[in-house]
Design a protein that fits this description.
Order of helices and strands: EHHEHEHEHEHEHHEHEHH
CATH topology: TIM Barrel
Strand content: 15-25%
Radius of gyration: 17 Å
Number of strands: 8
Largest sheet: 8 strands, parallel, barrel
Distance between the termini: 5 Å
Helix content: 40-55%
CATH class: Alpha Beta
């Protein structure tokens, strides 16, 4: 079965729309965990638009041992007065998984993976640092077989497959063929896969059928579905798809 990690950024974003604590991120996360998910994902950014360093600390406290904590972010983001830097957060809070994403500070959302076509000694150093912390490393990349090969050579533990193009054109046979070939190739070379971006109840089934995917991260669609079905029923629907 593919594990379900819930990205809670959108809940924090909704809270931040007003000066207050509604919805309460900790209480919402507890309810999500109790509903049966396998993991919680956060993606703090330097502009604090949603998840803040304080949120990371509070969420870390409530994560039980059977639930994975995944912190996403750009490992090269520089610290500022309110943001200590991604690797500093990783070092201090020691999540189960660190997902490295090459997003710029002002991007609305992650929309591309790392380009590994050229040697990246800094990225390689970061992956080695994560290994020394005993933290699983995952790197966000586009659906490209050559990129998978280079990720394997880097020694990364997992790759998170960027599924934005698939979600936008999931009825396209050529798009399906691309993702199926990439997933099958990753399975062949024993490179563990995660997947994320714009995945939902409609487009997940085909992706899961392509091959072994260890984990999917769902955020925007999950929160949207919760408005209709509630937390418990929404989690149940996603778990049914991922069986």
């Amino acid at each position: 079965m593919t594990n379900l990690s819930i990205n809670i950024n959108k809940i924090a974003w909704l809270r931040n729309a007003r000066d207050g604590d509604i919805p309460n991120l900790v209480n919402m996360t507890k309810n999500i965990i109790d509903s049966g998910c396998h993991g919680i994902t956060v993606h703090p950014r330097p502009d604090l638009r949603h998840i803040t360093p304080k949120d990371v600390a509070e969420i870390k406290k409530i994560i039980p041992s059977n639930i994975e904590f995944n912190i996403e972010g750009n490992p090269f983001e520089q610290p500022n007065d309110e943001y200590p830097g991604y690797m500093e957060l990783i070092n201090f809070y020691q999540p189960d998984q660190a997902t490295l994403v090459p997003d710029d500070t002002m991007q609305k959302t992650s929309d591309h993976g790392f380009d590994l076509s050229k040697p990246n000694l800094e990225l390689e150093k970061i992956i080695k640092t994560l290994k020394s912390f005993n933290i699983r490393s995952s790197i966000f990349i586009d659906p490209d077989i050559e990129q998978l090969k280079r990720a394997k050579d880097l020694g990364v533990d997992r790759v998170e497959l960027y599924t934005g193009p698939y979600a936008a054109l999931y009825n396209s046979q050529s798009t399906k063929d691309t993702y199926r070939s990439v997933i099958e190739f990753a399975n062949e070379i024993n490179l563990d896969l995660n997947a994320g971006h714009d995945l939902n109840l409609k487009n997940l089934p085909f992706l899961i059928d392509c091959g072994e995917i260890k984990e999917v991260s769902i955020g925007q669609a999950y929160v949207s579905d919760c408005l209709i079905y509630g937390i418990k029923e929404t989690t149940k629907k996603y778990l049914e798809v991922l069986k």
